[in-house]
Amino acid sequence: MQPVLAFDVYGTLIDTQGVKVELERRLPDREKAAEFARRWRDKQLEYSFRHGLMGAYVPFVECTREALVFTDRALQTGLSDNDYDHLMAVYAELPAFPDVVPALDQLRDAGMRCVAFSNGTSDAVSALLKRAGVDQHMDDVVSVDDIKRFKPDPAVYAFLRTRLETRPENTWLISSNPFDVIGATHAGLRSAWVRRSSDAPFDPWGIEPDMTVTDLETLANRLLK
């Protein structure tokens, strides 16, 4: 039986650092723009974790906007409400990594089922993938919004298997985010870490991915051996 592959979206299929171009237009210091992009992403994830732990779920886009406002205040960059609106619109149109479409086509041509699996809502993720030219290369979109939980809650990985009607050993989570890989592995799924940056560390929790790759084309080649 061919494995089913569930791909994380933000940071795995879609380049979240693509927002730096817009930040550089608004911030005179390129280094501050890069720092803003990094802290915005980190805070976005932190807020999703905190909302999840509190049992106070909000759609992921709200975590993203809250993180944007916090980062502006923390770095004292003086962005306006119009800036917030524009940057949120840019975040909804981020580009895909160049290896995504070739890898997905290779995997699907081999008979593997490929789905997007995200903290984002189905509508937001579907629109994002369509703008990035990825939607037609995917078989489905699975969103945690359907159960109002966030990764890495074990419930979201159980929900993924229920939606896909797959067994744990036949279900792969593909992600560039170590917390997601660890969460899926802890829940009994197979996992692959896409280490897109050579200096990216993996959390020392004693839970390792089944596979580590630098890009999705390498993943496809290894899975199809």
Describe, in plain words, how this protein is organized in 3D.
The protein is α/β, with parallel strands linked by helices and 225 residues long. The protein is built from nine helices and six strands; from the N terminus they run βαααααβαβαβαββα. The chain has helices at residues 20-26, 30-54, 60-75, 81-91, 100-109, 122-131, 154-164, 178-186, 216-223; strands spanning 4-7, 113-118, 140-143, 171-175, 190-194, 211-213. It has a six-stranded parallel beta sheet, with helices on both faces. It is globular, with a radius of gyration of 17 Å. The two termini are 15 Å apart.
Give structural attributes.
single chain; 225 residues; alpha/beta; 6-stranded parallel sheet
Q: Numbering strands along the chain, what is their spatial order in the largest sheet?
A: 3-2-1-4-5-6
Proportion of strand residues: 5-15%
DSSP, total strands: 6
Backbone shape: globular
Task: Provide a count of the helices.
Answer: 9
H-E order: EHHHHHEHEHEHEEH
**Mean of all residue-level pLDDT scores:** 96
Radius of gyration: 17 Å
